[in-house]
Amino acid sequence: MEYDGSVVIHGDVNPGAEIIVAGSVMVWGKLYGNVVAGSNGDQSQIICALCLKPSKLRIANVSFPIEILKINKKAEKPLYLIIQS
Q: What does pTM read for this prediction?
């Protein structure tokens, strides 16, 4: 799915699914697929989900290695990834 704004998804994003948006992505469910927020280059956008285990995660031109996301696997707290220029 591609969209020129922000999206809120009510449900899971399964492996193989791809979300590419110019705005932010909020998933009220589990995120397993590929997700790109800020596809227009805006690094201030966010990606959030109740369960964040994507196969690919990118904000603007910054890709986050999946290993970073696995660090938080057993944590009870949200994971925050901040882009600093």
A: 0.82
